[in-house]
Amino acid sequence: MSRSADLEKPRWYSETWKSAFLATAVVLLGALLVGGLTSFGQQYLPDWLRSLSNSAGGWTMFSFLLVWLGRARPLLGAFLGIVAFQALNEAYGAVSLLRGYFYAEPFSSNWTYIGLAAGPILGVSAALTRYGPPLWRALGVTPLAAVLLGEGIYGLQFVADTTSPIYWSLEIVLSLLFVTLAIFRGRLRLRSVALALGVWLVGASTFWFFYAVVLQ
């Protein structure tokens, strides 16, 4: 194989121009679409699913999924995780404003800052689930699964009387499912399984503490 061919072939952590363009397009266009639809979802989704449009787990899951679908590698994934959160947030605000509901000034809501902090973690994690070795693929699922588990428990504990408990229960089920699939897919040794489970549960506990204690 020629040296030029080697340079054009992406490594696990790098991109070609084509792969970078496609990944960016998938994330940006997908996030703009989902963010805009979120504004309508708050009004038109059935009661049991309506919290999807108001939950951290919803946008976390979509951000993770879009980076994964775009096939971004870890370095680009870190950047696209931020892009996904910002595009979701700004599209939601723009569509809400067109519908007569003011959300926030551009790039000034809490989600703007959350996206800057959480976006790189989710983006890298999504890339690792596709390109990493078995243990890292399992660990890549844990940030998403931790948010879903932590928020699901928080929702059932604190807001189940004003929202449908079905959605919060569904978040918990999805969290368990994602972690289980990642572990079985990787055929991990017992020590690696314990590490993945530990990271997941610590992450979920941290998220719950932040929501239930710090933000109260």
TrEMBL record:
Lineage of origin: Bacteria, Bacillati, Actinomycetota, Actinomycetes, Micrococcales
Protein name from the UniProt record: Uncharacterized protein
Span of the signal peptide: none
Transmembrane segments: 20-40, 52-69, 76-98, 110-128, 135-154, 166-184, 193-214
Presence of the UniProt keyword Transmembrane in the record: yes
Keyword flag Transmembrane: yes
Pfam families tied to this protein: DUF6518
Domain of life from the UniProt record: Bacteria
Keyword annotations of the record: Membrane, Transmembrane, Transmembrane helix
